[in-house]
Amino acid sequence: MASQEERAALQVIVLGSGGGPIETNTTAFLVRSVAKQWSKGSLLAVDAGVHLASISEILEKNNGSFDDKNSENELENSRNQKQPKRVLSNGPFAGMELQHESIKANAGYITGVLVGTYLITHPHLDHISGLVVNSSSLPRNQPKIIAGLPSTISALKTHIFNNIIWPNLSDENNGAGLVSYMRLVEDKSPSLFNSEDDGFVEVCEGLQVKTWSVSHGHCVEKHEKLSSTPESQSSENPRIRAGSTSSFTTSERNLRKSSFHDRLCFSESSAFLIQDVVTRTEILMFGDVEPDSISLFPRNKNVWTAAASRIVAGNLRGIFIECSYDDTRSVDGLFGHLAPRYLIEELKVLAAEVDKLRTRDRRKRKRASDCFAKYMRRKTKTESAQLSPYSSDFAEKDYYETDSKDDEFNDSDESCQSLYIPESAPTEKSNDEPQVTPLKGIKLIIIHIKEKLDDSPNVADIIHQQLLEHERQAQLGCEIIISSVGQSLYF
């Protein structure tokens, strides 16, 4: 029997599973189409809070776990002064042919040759710092692609690769040309009216992506209003006495307060539907995200509506989503993140959308079944009489066409008109059959857990238990997995 890895279409390698504050474990993944094996440009890096260091660490753990390829030709290799090719036999990079002797050189090969694109959910440091620091080692023969929403690319271009925070390594504004920006267009069309491939963009070998923007909290910024009064413009105020314990008098504090105005700003993140081009197998990967129920700009429902149709179609297999804090965290301390109670709340929205689609499909099948039953009754009557040449020809067909002039079939059932009915039309689900939980078969991978710097129990274990309890009560049916560095997940 084929193993899960052999049957799978997508592999996800977890380079970083956390959300800080420890900088060696921040959000980062590698995704590949299994059909592309380990070919050039076949790896998609989704976020890169950590990158090269984590790849090196994973390779080091599996150092020596390889098979000699073409071992039967060792004599020929020695004559040609060639080293036998080595292929990793286990670990996340199993099946990859090692190109070098040292770990750092092989890690550089993965980053420089195998990774084709960096797909960034949003430009916060815990999602990009590895990319930025590692970017100076990128090969110069072909620029690496950095893909994301226009807001993400704008932030990277303006605030990171700007020759101040970091050199401009892009191919824009006379940069060094090591990276090239790809601005993704958000999918805003109702999924029910889309064709299967609408909105997808190929981002690397064997993988294409559909993108949505989601909300990641808000902040209130205070901006000082410009004043034309000399007093407010002067840096030296004669009313400030030398040696005073306060820089401002009470009236001056009030004046200063009134000189500020509040501006509400939103933090935008992304959700990516990543699809294997060959099999249409999909995973959904979220950046940082807040619940719709407390958001000032709720946008998750659009993602769940689209995801529901992919679940019903059997394409979507896994959802990577954050759960930064446990349920003891107060609402005002979430800062645009999820806790277990809110994550389950979001999943209930997805489950409701799945149930809605499946109910609609059952009704369609029920109508088809009713129409089929009418034809079977009519067919029984006609077969009891002598068959005419017309009915003989009709009986040889493997489907039945309705006649809009047929009074029996036309009686107050317009849904049966001009309907093609198969010989074995499906019937509506029996009430005696066990009810299928809406998210059965879906792997829910929890990411971006923020560690506590104290002696309290492991927060990941607490979050896991809280999620399991919420899921048990909600009866969603999904498998909940806590991500960890070095994990290899197949879909």
Question: Can you put this structure into words, describing what you see?
Answer:
This protein has a domain at 8-69 and 81-216 and 267-357 and 483-490: Ribonuclease Z/Hydroxyacylglutathione hydrolase-like (Metallo-beta-lactamase, Chain A, 4-Layer Sandwich). It has 12 helices and 19 strands. The chain has helices at 4-7, 52-61, 74-79, 103-114, 125-134, 150-160, 230-233, 250-258, 300-313, 340-384, 389-395, 459-474; strands spanning 10-19, 26-33, 43-48, 66-69, 85-88, 97-98, 115-119, 144-148, 179-183, 201-204, 207-224, 260-276, 282-286, 316-322, 399-400, 421-422, 443-447, 479-482, 488-490. The protein starts with a helix and ends with a strand.
The CATH C-level name of the domain at 8-69 and 81-216 and 267-357 and 483-490 is Alpha Beta
What structural class do you assign from the helix and strand content? alpha/beta
The percent of residues in helical segments reads 25-40%
Q: What is the name of the CATH superfamily of the domain at 8-69 and 81-216 and 267-357 and 483-490?
A: Ribonuclease Z/Hydroxyacylglutathione hydrolase-like
The best one-word shape is globular
Task: Kindly report how far apart the N and C termini lie.
Answer: 17 Å
Number of helices, where a helix is a run of at least 4 consecutive DSSP H or I residues = 12
- Taken as a percent bin, the fraction of beta residues is 15-25%
Query: Would you tell me the overall average pLDDT?
Result: 82
